[in-house]
Amino acid sequence: QVQLVESGGGLVQPGGSLRLSCAASGSIFSRDGMAWYRQVPGKQREMVATISSGAYTNYRDSVKGRFIISRDNAKNTVYLQMNSLKPEDTATYYCRIIPSGPWGQGTQVTVSS
Question: What is 11-76 written as a DSSP string?
Fold first, then answer.
C-alpha cells in the first residue's frame, strides 16, 4: 500500500522560506512522477509543481522563480523549497504520485505577518 507523509509546513512571514518534504513508502519511488498541490478552503486543489522520474520539472506560473521541486530517490522523498513566500501562498499543501496516485494528508502553510 502506497503511503505519502508530508511535513515542513508552518507559519512564516512574507518574504520568508519553508521547505516541505514528502516521504513515500510502498511504491517504486524512482519510477514515479511526483507533484505538489495546494488547496484553500472553498477552492479547487491546484497543481503547484511536478517532477518526473527523470527529474524534469514544471511549475504553475505564480510560483516560477520562487519555488523549487526536487527529489531524493535514495530517501524516497520529494521536496518543495518555497522562497519569497507571499500571503497568497497560504494553503494546505499535498503531495501525490502522478498522474493518479494517492494523496498525502497535507501540511498547512500560513504566510502572515
Answer: EE-TT--EEEEEEEESS-GGG-EEEEEEE-TTS--EEEEEE-TT--EEE-GGGTTTEEEEEEGGGT
Contact 49, 36 (CB under 8 A): yes
CA dist., res. 4 & res. 16, Å (int) = 26
Per DSSP, what are the bridge partners of residue 33?
98
Tens digits of pLDDT across the chain (113 residues): 889 999 999 999 999 999 999 999 887 777 889 999 999 999 999 999 999 999 999 999 999 999 999 999 999 999 999 999 999 999 999 999 998 888 889 999 999 99
Task: Label the pairing between strands 3-7 and 57-59.
Answer: unpaired
Please give the backbone phi and psi of residue 83, each rounded to the nearest 5 degrees, phi first.
Answer: -115, 165
Distance separating alpha carbons of residues 32 and 17, to the nearest angstrom:
27
